[in-house]
Each structure stands twice: as structure tokens, then as C-alpha cells.
Amino acid sequence: MKTLRYFSNNSDRYIFDFNFCSMRKGWCQIDTKNDASYFGNWVHPGKLEIITFAEGDVTNIILDNIKELKDEIVKMEKFYNEQYEERFRNGKSIQIDCFPGAKEIIKKIGLEIYLS
Asked: Which residues sit opposite 29 in a β-bridge?
């Protein structure tokens, strides 16, 4: 696993939603109850990457295998569960929203409990 951190001059997350981490590029949005214009998370199950944008700070985690990706998503859900006791209808503190092709990958990884 490799973690890259950098600062983005973008003042909001929408450049990620509609460009860098768009669904048409294979990315899935990891929804939390804390999402805002200044905060968001995305996962690319094919590239084994997770990106977090928080007030200009960007963290890009590049995983080595599917197990690491699954472990990171579970760790993320545990973090939001402990920090904020707000849940989605699935009873989880995160949910993954993506296009049908990526949903199939998410299911194969064993993360279907997080799908919206």
C-alpha cells in the first residue's frame, strides 16, 4: 500500500465528483453523513485506489490487492461508525454509490453490504 498526500487548489469537492473521480471514469462515491462541498471520499475498485478530499487536503491510497482495498473500506466504515453515530438505511455509516459495472466488482470483493 502507498499513501500520497497533497494540497489541491480546488476549493470544493466537485472537481473530483465531475472530473477526477467521476463514475464515467470508474470511480464510486463513498457516501458519509459528513459529505459537504469541502469533503468527500471515492474508491476505484478496478484501480484499487481510494481518494479523500478534505478542505483542500487530498489523500490518495493506492492498494496492492483486493484484500487491502476491502480492509481499508471496512476500516473507514469503523472510523465513521465510532466518530459519528449517524447511519444510512443499510445500518452502516458509509455507503458506496457507483455505476452497475463497478457494483459488480464491489460485490465480488465482498463489500455489497455498503452498496446504496
From this structure: 42, 97
